[in-house]
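SAMPLE LOG
Freezer: B-3
Tube label: C17
Construct: single chain, 541 aa
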Amino acid sequence: MAFDLVTMTAIAAILALLYYYVRSRYRYFLDKPYPHLKPTFPFGSSGPIMLRQRDMIEHVEIVYNIHPDAKVVGAYDFLTPNLMLRDPECVKQIGVKDFDYFTDHTPFVPNEHDIMQSDNMFLNSLFMLRGQKWRDMRATLSPAFTGSKMRQMFELMSESCQGMVQHLLDEARADESKQVHEMKDIFTRLANDVIASIAFGIKVNSFSERENDFYKRGKKLLDFTSFWPSIRFMLFIMMPRVMLKLNIELMDKEMCQHFHAMIMDNMKVREEKGIVRNDMINILMQVKRGMLSHQRDEPDVKDAGFATVHESAVGKKAITREWSEKELVAQCFLFFLAGFDTISTALGFLAYELMLHPEVQDRLYEEIIGVDEKLNGKPLNYEAVQGMRYMDMVVSESLRLWPPAPMVDRYCNRDYTFDDGEGLRFKLEKGVTVMIPVAGLHSDPKYFPDPKRFDPERFNEENRHKINPGAYLPFGVGPRNCIGSRFALMEVKSVIFYLLKNFTFERSDKTQVPLKLKHSPAVLAAEKGIWIRFKPRKLSN
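STRUCTURE (predicted):
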């Protein structure tokens, strides 16, 4: 009896301490000069998305609209207070003007030494590097994503696109029932082939060889939907240091080791045989030798697309630092991660909008035929793709409506005083994360009238200057924006060029309209897939 009493007292004391600790954490915003979202234990403001009650875009839009008149809003990620920016000028102030206070993404682990000692490829990638090391790596890799490098990579990417289209045409002409495709499957396979060629230096065709080893391994590596990968993702968010101590990767460890070995073996063979190929492996080899740098005569490509982000002074600094094999391989891995999933996601939603709006599809087809006629039998090239004005309008609008990253973050690396010059002034302590609700800004009628309507004319020559640059952020903001925006846009536009030249996009019995997204905190994906009929335009060919 006495033991039971002691046990119950101890449990009561622990619960009381937990209660007061949580209560103290949830009082952070009470003395702040801006509103905050009411927290719910244990998820804070993130309960609906973590419990899979909302999709990612829906969740961001809802929290964005709770306090419609506020420039900034407080929110809690579990027990951690964050700040959400609702005003484009505030976004530019923190993301660009005062960037030196916000150079990093929110770290998985507070101690950078833990990352340096870890073989975790994701934590060693450009996305997760911090401080001076991030600056050095950004400047090291930046020359790999200039217009001149895109021109060099274009032919390799174009080969994969043409291989996909030819396979789909042959299949559709042989069997009409095989004209209906799920977009995530189609574009993941294409992205796999492009990345295999450009990032890993190997040639695969994931359409004719549907279960090729590279594709299977890639899918397994980026699987966040099945039970253990989703649990592993959650545990990394909640207790990253414990996961690192247990030597558990965010992605499948065996797959990471396989890709590491593949890259190193490829480099070794090229060095031994003097092989040169215009791909990411060659770029990493140049980095290793200290031979990659910005060309002084590299033009600022004005036709790279409205959504393209431009490199800041950070990325153009000359770097002589040496990088380890682990660090170089991690960057190739990040290229794979972004190319395999993000680009395929963007393509899927774009194809859906073109299917849903045949008048837009028809006008884009006319532009494609016009470009093809000007090429006069010559292969498609980088300049021709970049010169397509209506294509750029369509892609820009699709990225607005379906932003690949619905929310982006910046981490306050030292105490900062925010002052908007209009009476809002407060202190941000080191360690606070600032959230930028991209999906919220993209769907705000103040910046985009009738925001749920797909309207490429928002981005025509007459209207594009009206768009607030702090409210349109498909590739992020400031010096820490997406380094691969040029490559992503080049691939998306080229894929649509080849597909629309050969097919019309039509509804099928499986097409879900309106489209609904999966309720997931980790992936932006359609609830029932995106099913579209690719109907060949010229069956007589």
